């Protein structure tokens, strides 16, 4: 393949990946990380089109400058991962400033011997962000690491290529031949563009998965806190012979159908409103634990008659959630209720009994609550 052929393939891949990231990632699941990664793909696509234009008109300054945005795009991967994890500052502005300066400098130096060392420095900086990207990927939750493998591997490959480029530069420096113009580096460009093809595909697989999965939440600590607090409350209630404690398992009906009938963003709004309404209906003394976006546990210190009133209000409130413009169906929930004295105030037994009651309510058609039945 000639140089222009490799570049045209790169243009096709970059355009396709950018459309997929924006259409399947950012638009249905908008967010800060998704916007940063979409911008990175768009920058890389722009860089590819500039390379084709430079080859067609024979402009070395344009070809030299065109390598800046694609190196910046690699840095955007790291920035987006920091944004997704909630780290501040996310280093977006410094990244833009540094690689904008490299872009301008590469364009101005394209026809001078300074271009070679300058390009190697810019490539090394992008490889540093590649290493930082790999570090961020290794910090992902265990459930996400499998899909992070494609980008992790190519990030390590990027770092390895940077080492090769750096060693080549040191050898040239030892021979006194470090100076290279843009046209002297065509063989290195062909290798870089082939690596870029792999990077595009691997980055799309991992980043699109992370966008659609959503931002990580500190679920483990919340789970530990809820269960430790609930066990303590039940233990003290048992000693005081306080019989008015119940565990409630609330589940949104037909979550799979809801997701299919709405956009990802609309489903996120529905699940957020679902949790919010439970918190609003339940009294301040209740302990609320979000198991998932469509399931919530509530430990409620109220007598039986009051519990029935709260459940009726909750079912009515959830039924008003429907946003006709995004979800053309009526929402409902199924609720299981387990009374603490019947399970000897054992939290594990209460959770299992409430879950069974909620599942039975769903099988019975949903939009109802059912009381747990304990074997004698």
From TrEMBL:
SUPFAM superfamilies: Nucleotide cyclase. The chain crosses the membrane at residues 6-27, 34-52, 90-109, 121-138, 150-174, 194-211. InterPro entries: Nucleotide_cyclase, Rev_trsase/Diguanyl_cyclase. Keywords: Membrane, Transmembrane, Transmembrane helix. This is GGDEF domain-containing protein. It comes from Microbacterium aquilitoris.
